[in-house]
Amino acid sequence: MFRHPVTSSTPLTRLPGLFKLPSRLFTACARLNTVSQSWPKQPATASISDNQIATLAAKPLHSLTLADLVRHGNPPLSTEALFSSANFTLSLLPIRLAHRIQALRNLPFIVVSNPHIARIYGNYMHSLSTLLPYQERRITTLEVESQFTEVMADLVQTHSNTIPVLARGFLECRKYISPAEVTKFLDEHLRTRIGTRLIAEQHIALHLSSHPHSPGGVEATTNVSSTHVGVIDTALRPAEIIRHCETFVSEICELKYGVRPTVIINGQPDAQLAQVPTHLEYILTELLKNAFRATVERGKEREPIEVTIAASPSTKSLTTDTPESTQAPQSLESAGQSSTSDESIPCVTIRIRDRGGGISPDILPNIWAYSFTTFGEDEALDVSNGNIDALNAISGAGGDSSSLAGLGYGLPLGRAYAEHFGGGIAVQSLWGWGTDVYLNLRGLGKNILTTD
Q: Which of 34, 145, 257, 443 could cysteine-pair with 346, CB 3.0–4.6 Å?
């Protein structure tokens, strides 16, 4: 069995910089001087035995939902609610980390010996070692809760570059592991990572915006929008995120090509639902980047990219939440339809239509495979060494850097973000004409949003 020494070499940095808070929440935190707050020391670590890892890895994963993340109420939280959030977080994360450690151990030894993948293994061992000292007790004091939040900050920082590092590692090991094995491992790993990071970031955000830790008390947080519960915007307007992403991608497109297509938003631009803004930013940036590139390279920059927003407020619940499992790409029909449930769940479908010539039938079956890229092999290796053209210098959600560009992770990772809370992405290509991409998003029922 592969073993890796436990290390704790990752230094703590300033907490608010570890993740992307909603802009209004970040502004409020800045007023509380939390931006200048540095954690005093690194979290304590504990030794980990193989039996501990095996015991934790044998426990089932909790399928994370948006309802789980808003269950503790709107900030600022009471002291009891803050303890509840901390203990809920603590009940989930050790199991998730142990599952990933076990999965990494199950890879071929020569693959795990790769320095990039071995680094990720060491990071997971380090993070689990910092959580174990808290697992034997419940968090019942503000001092311990603050120390636990330091551990969450360390966890988020430690794993901030997991995806680019894994991408490099698997690219270097492509002779020793099949593309199907890579896709299976990464699909499970990255879906679990999305939930793990969200759980940690949500508690950090609730900690920062809750009055027991605010220098100015409850009044200091009154400027935070009531629509935000931690990192979730319960009244997010996709049209605003689309315009934000359009501006970003347009500027980079013009820098590379000298032109920029226009984007037309139609349908129901005032539609709202509960979502994680950074996830939607990543998805839309990736989809718009693909549409811009195809449109310009086909010489159709004068043809607008059409984005249609369709809200379905009476839509029933989508398929059951299995965000941690490996799922097959959704069909066009399943990305926009749903099955029956006891509660009405608001859903929004976004269609992005371009005149970029569509996707070649030879390429279309591979678009959901990790490490599949339209770059040539030499170009992909050049990217892995840090050489990236302007249009591909797109940063990902949750700390994933532009080193992913050209490595074939954009579309399948975007699908993983979309499917994590029951949504999906479907692609319909008209070869020789253009492409329609359907992004379906699932929100929260009203009874959950009105529960304190």
A: 443
